[in-house]
Amino acid sequence: MSYLEVRHLSKRYGRTNGVLDVSFDVDTGTVFGLAGPNGAGKSSLTRMLATLVRPTKGQITIDGLDAMRKARTVRGWIGYVPDVFGLYERTKVGEYLNFFGRCFGMPWRIRQSAIVELLKLVDLYDFRFADCQSLSRGQQQKLLIARALLNEPRLLVLDEPLTALDSQSRLEMLEVLRELASMGKAIVMSSNAIGDLVDVCDRIGLMAAGQLTAVGTVPELVRELEVAHRMRLVVLQDADVALRVLNESSDVTEVEASRNWFSFTCHGGQAGQAQLLTQLIAAGVKVAQYAPMQQPLHELVASAPPTPVSPDQSRP
């Protein structure tokens, strides 16, 4: 049994589906990423995981407990960082964490010890007397993570934690997340840019229109999405024949032609690509170049058709 189990989770806002039939698992010591454009349902999903929003349907299980029925209990196991900052003006870093430690009912000595350890973990110890508002955006994001860790949560839910960070702040944040995972935390983090997730996540779920369309490791997602791949074809002659073969092939869509140069989407993976090349040669086309066009994963994601994911497919 995984530490976090999400089964057939849905959330409706009136007649609109914010999240629709989402299922996945997250084990301790692993990072699970949610990638998708704005409006894909990521924030609604993370708020449900944090027990801040009740699902319309489905179930969230944390360490064997129903998160909705036992919300008061499981909230003590969750650290949540929303996509908007909640920092107070004219409050120093140490005071900010001390306030939330008191909210958690932590005794003074334990509270002070935890604050020192967390500030060192996120590399903010030297800023403990600085005003929260004077910190850079990356430092503020790390302070929010320190706050979320005060109650020693077993599950960390982060909504867009890398948004608008510069490259150095992003690298520092990724290092913090890797260290937290090595400490045994189960981490769920979302981003509208899949490039933010590939360097830290063990598995990634792709979201679109409230649905989880694919789940897997980065290599698994690349293999799955490359079933339909953009191809480049250059011919020495008989461009008209090549165009006819492309248009007649059931595996080819979105053909673009310019003299003896063609680009198109070939479906069916490597088998489909090989079959099309055989058809071109058999038609007498002299092929000078025939190869997949290099596409970053985020472009492959954008071009991939949604494929509903069952609970069994979502398991590692």
What features would you describe in this structure?
With 316 residues, the protein is an alpha/beta fold. Helix content is 33%, strand content 29%. The strands form three sheets. It has a six-stranded mixed β-sheet with strand order 6-7-8-3-9-10, with helices on both faces. It has a four-stranded antiparallel β-sheet with strand order 2-1-4-5, with helices on one face. A four-stranded antiparallel β-sheet has the order 12-13-11-14, covered by helices on one side. The protein is elongated and about 80 Å long. The relative contact order is 0.15. Mean pLDDT is 86; it is low at 302-316.
Keyphrases for this structure?
elongated; 4-stranded antiparallel sheet; alpha/beta; 6-stranded mixed sheet; 316 residues; single chain
- Portion of residues within helices: 25-40%
Query: What is the distance, rounded to the nearest whole angstrom, between the alpha carbons of the first and last residues?
Result: 12 Å
Q: Low-confidence stretches at least 5 residues in length (pLDDT < 50)?
A: 302-316
Strand content: 25-35%
The overall average pLDDT, rounded, is: 86
Give the SSE string.
EEEHEEHEHHHEHEEEHEHEEHEH
Lateral strand order in the biggest sheet? 6-7-8-3-9-10
Give the number of DSSP strands.
Answer: 14
